[in-house]
Amino acid sequence: MLDLASGLLLGRVVESDSSRTVIELHDPSLLGRVTPADLVSLSGRHAGERLIGLVEGVAAGGGAGVVRATLLGALATAPAGDVFKRGASAYPAVGTECHLIEGELLLRFMSILGENVAPEERLELGRYVAERDAVAVADGNRLFQRHAAVLGSTGSGKSWTVALMLERAAQLAHPNIIVFDLHGEYAPLARGTADRPPIARGFRVAGPGDRADTDDVLFVPYWLLDRDEMLSLVLDESDPDAPNQAIRFSDHVHKLKISSLLADGYEETAATVTVDSPVPYALENLLTWLTADDEEKIVTQPSGDVIPGPFNGRLTRFISRLQARLADGRYAFMFNPPDECREYEWLVRTAAELLDTSEGPGIKVIDFSEVPAEAVPVVAGVLARLLYDIQFWTDAEHRTPLCFICDEAHLYMPTAEGKGPTHREALRAFEQIAKEGRKYGVGLMIVSQRPADVSRTVLAQCNNFVVLRLTNDQDQNVIAQLVPQTLARLTDVLPLLDVGEALLLGDALLLPTRVKLDPPLIAPSSATRAFWNDWADHPSSAAAIVDGVEALRRQVRPSGWRDAVGPLTR
């Protein structure tokens, strides 16, 4: 057994309650030996048990000085060796001796934490700041199955942290992870390097210049959207005729889906299909039917008078908005996809590419960088909801757990205040996954530089937090509110963390503490540009500016960004 009582004696407990323990030092010289974030041990109520505390603060006074500590758990002797358990089943009595855990004792104690995690569940993240020779090991099961968040200011190392976790997961035989990559930062993981193979398969949501359904281009055809998602893009809720427009749209889409199924011979599916079912239908027919309603006139009998139909003139603005979406090249990936995207079997093929883990990389990176900003919430929400629904309806014995890593989550799952219908629909999808996904093997990892702007409902469902440097007061307060009250003081260190340092909180890591994360072997393309050095050494390129302007006009990225297109010609 590790004898923590052999450490430096600090003093005795003079105050003990459910959230804090106060130790009076027996020697004033010890004020210089103890600092916040140090670990201490105290005698437990049971034989062979030592309570573990985290130093919150040190102050002069009370004689030789006092140390305030928060209890984290207990180290107990078991037949198989020492075992650390989180939480305090008992509190130290007044007069209990307190010893500092440092040096060789600290190294051995930290090693025990890693040994408590079964070999097949180990996720090595880096080294403890308190003891750099000890490996920080998380429980991979607990991290992914109970939702997690990677939070930190820009430049703090979030993308490297995500890349590290993906790198570790890629060592497993069948990882099933989908990364929503808002800025194309994780593309190197799908390309690999000269000396390292790729660990992921890359997809890219089609841009305005894409017209073919190729292996790496992902279209999101309109018929995948459920009723509310579609209306969030084309319905003006302030229009007095909005209720009539929504009703007529729903009726026609339902009938068109039934007609499409019957025409292709899927009678059984047609009998149960709903307006929300992902079934292809012709958008041109929808416009024709809506236009007929908008222009309908009825001849009354027996007078023969001609009067407007019930929807005459009420759908005009709705039709115009739908036509505008159809004409907008930025939305071609949704409203004007290739013909093969209108086939009944297209969804099966696409779902298999995104969810298959039997061949090729199980990690999929989806690049959203060419999606219009106002459409990002809908596209992210549709993909997450659709894959979650497939997982929900898959036989439980044949499900492979799935995790969504949601980069820049504040852009599409924000706090509800003041957001429009597209954000509302995305929130609906992600909040459902946050609340119910664990039951069906679907997890979330939220990645954001602004936790104060992320849905509280989603964050509240996260049981694990990897928090890098945060300098904004509001963001720090959010973290303090999300963690147990006894650990809230730990968040005081957030503004002081170095790049790549993180505070790990939650049930995936036994000890809430600072960790220096390992750098990934394949770095994401998120490094901050060295402005001063670039200004000194890198002149601008007139040719690159010309190509950039032309790419803007064509909505096709230059060859340096998208190798498949080739050089732009004029």
Provide an overview of this structure:
Helix 12 (376-393) runs parallel beside helix 13 (421-436). The protein has helices at residues 103-115, 140-145, 158-169, 187-191, 227-234, 242-263, 267-270, 283-295, 316-327, 332-335, 346-355, 376-393, 421-436, 456-460, 473-482, 531-537, 542-554; strands spanning 8-16, 21-25, 39-43, 49-59, 66-78, 81-86, 97-101, 122-128, 135-139, 148-151, 177-181, 201-205, 217-218, 297-299, 306-308, 363-367, 402-406, 442-448, 464-467, 501-506, 513-517. The chain has 570 residues and is of the alpha/beta class. The model is unreliable at 559-570 (pLDDT under 50).
Total helical elements: 17
What portion of residues belong to β-strands? 15-25%
Number of strands: 21
Measured between the Cα atoms of the first and last residue, the distance is: 76 Å
The biggest sheet, with number of strands, parallel, antiparallel or mixed sense and barrel status, is: 12 strands, mixed
Unreliable stretches (pLDDT < 50, length at least 5) are 559-570
Average pLDDT, rounded to a whole number, is 89
Strand order of the largest sheet: 9-8-21-20-19-10-18-17-11-16-12-13
What is the gyration radius calculated from CA atoms? 29 Å
